[in-house]
Amino acid sequence: MGFVSEFKEFATKGNVIDLAVGVIIGAAFNKIVSSLIDDVITPLILKPALDAAHLSTIEELTAFGGVKYGVFLSAVINFVIVAFVLFLIIKGLNNLKKKDVPPPAPTGPTQEELLIQIRDLLKNKQ
Description:
mainly alpha, 0% strand
């Protein structure tokens, strides 16, 4: 098998295509989360703290004359939100999978076997 045909086989496998779709969706999701933090969370929740520090965005937070820990803090908030949303998505998918599985067959004797045992016990009494 030639190099080109091996690459073609690799690139057209379902896993590679699924991964590519995941990366693209992840990039779009990153923009949504960044907007959520920059446009919703920071103004609503962090606004009083930023006003007290005389800052407009969380990225402007610095310490020791130039250490930009605000950028790090923003990245941590991004990560926590993405992780939480992914947790909720996976939890929902797992719940859907559980509902599709039929309930296990009851263990123990069946109704007919119990009736046969009762019949046999009644015969032995007589």
